[in-house]
């Protein structure tokens, strides 16, 4: 048999109304099913981000949700159209009973190859991005909606144009009208499906975020340029202190647990800590640090009560959680949860409390009060015999140095010069009024901590030719003694007076 030129193109395709209905029905049904699958995968991924990686749920706005709905609908519509076109060609009797098999197989091979190649590429990229997001909240750094919006328009278009070769080889001279009509149908499918919500996104957000303290209470942390990184191990206990969004009359103490969170009283803190640490070994218990995440408007009088309870139960290692003052990230960025100002609270001595109770029953005007010099419980004795200056945070607007008004920004320079001049015998006493808010307290504490840090850092550079940060990050046996020597610089340094010390001072004055 002699093949004639153009034998592959002699047969023309004849399409009836039933053929068109079949093509549209298959295309729409497949698009509908795939769109639902894409949305369910997206929501499963979002829910997973709340418990994996950075522990911060990916929350989409209404505009973002609609945008991604349209994108998934367009992708599903194009894939549905490609599949419907492939099925139609495989069942060629829909168009014409007699058609060369060579042409059919060539078209099917190209259509299937291009479709699965693009689908494999898209799935691979999406899967890799999902793994990264589940490991780390990368959406804080890479905002696909804001920065790469054009990609979501191009992907479905490129995917659709992948069918051009199939359409051209199938419909020949009518290829352009078919391409245009197919595009309009896919566009219509995308708009229709994009407005269908298979899941209630807002309800999912509310259900998950309802278990998160910071979304249900006002806990706005203060900002600081001085902070340390909180180690991940051993585990720490977070105590939130903030306000109810509705009732802001008094601060609340909130503890996060497996079921969400619970409000507790100050007296219940000991039991909470016991429950959380009952299965810990001795080493972990001794290394425990309490992270205080305190709203910046909470008065220091309330914080003093909490610190007093922590001292009473001998949980004196605390960290004041803060946010970096100059950060490009929002407050809910997971890495910012690991920043804070560490402090070891003074021991609460029962001897001191008993001594105060006994003094209150006496008429002190008849006596000359002396503090026991050989007891660590009476730091007033050491203050009295040391070179000292006294910074008094009297209100949110007034800070004094030895009863003279100063500006907060001058505190670091004053404290640094004083500590360097008087060496180990110097102490900067800090007194804080109960009415001062936590934000103002952190501003003053920041300046004092910076003064001590700069003294130690300068000493480290002079003696070891290494910054202090080097020893903090590479603490091991070889540098341990050097690090200890550095910490001795300004070791006494800053001392915040406790309620007992202030009370003893008041009683001593009569």
From TrEMBL:
- Residues crossing the lipid bilayer are 21-41, 66-87, 114-138, 150-167, 179-199
Q: Which domain of life is it from?
A: Bacteria
The alphabetical list of record keywords is: Membrane, Transmembrane, Transmembrane helix
Q: What is this protein called?
A: Uncharacterized protein
Source organism per UniProt: Splendidivirga corallicola
User: According to the entry, what is the taxonomic lineage of the organism?
Assistant: Bacteria, Pseudomonadati, Bacteroidota, Cytophagia, Cytophagales
